[in-house]
Amino acid sequence: MIWGISIIRWVLIILAVFMVIDRVLKFTRRESGQTLFKLVSSVLIWGIILAISIYPDFAYFIAKKLGMGENLNTLIFFGFVVVFMLIFKILSIIEHIEQQITEVVRTTAIKKEIKK
């Protein structure tokens, strides 16, 4: 434990900070496929993960109000982290495929126009 925070929480804090900074940098560099919606949703999701990592008592408070136990809450939280990472990866792959399809369609259209 460093400063009373477990290693797992440090990993989550570092991961969340990295993801927020990465998304903001991609948006400010105007990389293809980066929209304001993706930026806001990424910052919101990773911000919540960061907040819960720093203040786990808040998650415990919410879990108690909803009638969940500690172990179930932890399992659900890690599940959400994994699911969000997979969703963003899948969105990135889909956007890349869309860009490739657009390029193929443009190239084909130009070739057909040249042949006329």
Output the structural class: mainly alpha
- The low-confidence runs, each spanning 5 or more residues with pLDDT under 50, are none
Would you report the number of β strands?
A: 0
Provide the succession of SSEs.
Answer: HHHH
Question: Could you say how many structural domains there are in total?
Answer: 1
Helix content class? over 70%
Summarize the main sheet: none
The proportion of residues in beta strands is under 5%
Could you say which overall geometry the principal axes of the C-alpha atoms support? elongated
Q: Report how far the terminal alpha carbons are from each other.
A: 71 Å
Description:
The protein has 116 residues and is an all-alpha fold. It has one domain (7-91). It is 84% helix and 0% strand. It has 4 helices and no strands. The chain has helices at 7-28, 36-54, 56-66, 70-115. Helix 1 (7-28) runs antiparallel to helix 2 (36-54) and helix 2 (36-54) packs across helix 3 (56-66). It is elongated, with a radius of gyration of 20 Å. It starts with 6 loop residues before the first helix and ends with a helix.
